[in-house]
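Researcher: Let's continue the batch. This sequence belongs to DEDDh family exonuclease, and it's 329 residues. Same format as the previous ones, please.
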Amino acid sequence: MDQSWGRPANEPGAGWAVVDVETSGFRPGQARVVSIAALALGDDGNVEHSLYSLLNPGVDPGPTHVHGLTAEMLAGQPRFGDIVGDLVELLRGRTLVAHNVGFDYSFLAAEAELVGAELPVDTVMCTVELTRRLDLGTDNLRLETLAAHWGITQMKPHDALDDAMVLAQILKPVLFRARERRVWLPVHPVTRRRWPNGAVTHDELRPFKAVASRLPCPYLNPGRYVEGRPLVQGMRVALSAEVIRTHEELVERIVHAGLSYTDNIDLETSLIICNDPAPEHGKGYQANELGVPLVRDDEFMRHLGSVVGGTGIEEFADATLAGDQFALF
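Model: Same format as before. Here are the structure tokens for DEDDh family exonuclease:
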């Protein structure tokens, strides 16, 4: 799979690895994993094989009232290094999936580093973000709430195996709904670095907005968007709070189309995605003050099917250089 952010739900993938860990605390590299469950799923969401183990962390197991695991229960269990080989084989070639994937993946990366192993994971997907995009109408996006929504029985919340099995059961109808609604999956790349001076950290899995705002755009900014005309690659696009789709999904689509995402509203901004035609505050208000066009998110999504090719920065630089050389004679 390539290293782009997000992909259409109807585009085939190489399968999923649904993972859940219970930990002795909240800081990867300091707290330890006390139990792990990983389920290998085909691209259709059907379980192919699994791994589950309690783990002896070698430290106090932490919040026993949450995960139910005591030091006595974990004393004779395997260490992470004893199961990492099986985990590596299960993960290989699959997208790692978790409910708040930054937490689970960061802990696994830290544990792998401690035993000198490397996780063969290139992409991850967070089911919190995916279900948020589907607008299911639930009160919240907690795992137990989603399980109830899909009619799935959760026997032991905060048990790694039960949570992973519930998430795997949820994933199948969620993927079907995503394909049905043509929603993009939040499949995001990760870089395998070493902990703590670089295995994957929470910072690396930070929201794509923070990453995208610093990505160089390969196209020149063609200026302001004009209503009735197509989008042009290189246009600088900002987001307001007044949208229906998640910011992460919109940013994925902006970057994928060859547009440039910006956190700032200024005279160089081509348009802002905003569903309120007359916002009274925030970025939408700033855009109106500067005359930056406001475009609804549904209208913006429709325009993505007919984006016009832009002028490449390298192409422009080469043409400028050639012109300068010609002027010397």
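Researcher: Any comment?
Model: The domain at 209-314 is CATH 3.40.50.10190 (Rossmann fold).
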